[in-house]
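Sequence in, structure out.
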Amino acid sequence: MQSAQTIGIDLPLKALVWQDGSGKTWLSYNDPSWLVTRHGLGDEVDATVRAMAGALDAVAKAATSTP
């Protein structure tokens, strides 16, 4: 939010988790890279965005994997 206050509309990040008719779990969220483009952020946020994307990917995989 320090780079572009408009990103506040998309923060904090949200995720939608649901199960389909066959019982498969799905998780959706806005990719942090898309938020960078949407709000016109510069290269100064690249490291933070990569870290956020990696963490979200790991959480999504853990939440949707079958034991």
